[in-house]
Amino acid sequence: MAKSGVSVTAGAAGGPGFKKAAFPKTHIAKVRQARRINRALAEVYPYAHPELDFESPFELLVATVLSAQTTDLRVNQTTPALFAKYPTPEAMADADPEVLEELIRPTGFFRNKAKSLLGLSKSLRDDFGGEVPKTLEEMVTLPGVGRKTANVVLGNARDPKTGEPFGVPGITVDTHFGRLARRFGWTESDDPVKVEQEVGALVEKSEWTMLSHRVVFHGRRICHARKPACGACPIAPLCPSYGEGETDPVKAEKLLKYEKGGQPGQRLQPPADYPGEAAARAASTGGVGPDAADVDRAGAAG
Predict the structure, then answer these.
(1) Which residue from 79, 118, 233, 291 has the fewest beta carbons nearer than 10 Å?
(2) How far apart are CA 170 and CA 155, in angstroms?
(3) How much is the pTM?
(4) Model pLDDT for residues 234-281, shown as the tens digit of each residue
(5) How far is Cα 253 from Cα 10, in angstroms, rounded to an integer?
């Protein structure tokens, strides 16, 4: 039995005595429900972590910029060659744009992303002595870096010299986090900054970074966008949106992804405590399909 009072074993959804949760209506109700969900997700995903491979703050920053409009797996399959050629901001700042574009082509929107990487690398070199800054205010001055990217880096990177974590709590509002925050009733907004502010008011600041990981893990593995696996959801008794997806336990079980579905994760080098399998390296360094390339030529932002 979880500390939240909700069993986190699969099959809790729709079982005997199951009662669908109501949407919290008051601020205090939202606080209580959000913290219960956070505690329950901590039991379901004690190994929650960033799903981008990185070994330095600069690598995490670059990988996060590349992760826009694509999967973390695709980024992880792309960055080994990228970081081998450009291991530092100074090296990437001097990159030939066409060579850089070709290296990151598999992630899509490669022209816009290359422009951002060149811009942020030059800023790191010229304005920050080649070091990734440790404040949100400084991070968002880097080209192509918004609050989401800044929060990822500040909450998960470590100082390359001391090994100490940056340790700046932040809520990372990607598509998964925003979707689940609305399903849980924490917000009604589609605006990432407003979602960040509203959810931040519900959960202790010290929990912001890990809450982000747990919610994103849940969104990727169980609470999917088109067909959530409600019948296999271990936190279903806490969810006011139960029933939006498949409620039959057997059918829902088949919808589970990554380690919950017995499949490899997104990292090529996952943490030691990750219970699933490492992802496979890319079979080739070929480009992306014409759809992504066409969109990039149209000037869509990464």
Answers:
(1) 291
(2) 6
(3) 0.89
(4) 999 999 999 999 999 999 999 999 999 999 999 999 999 999 999 999
(5) 9
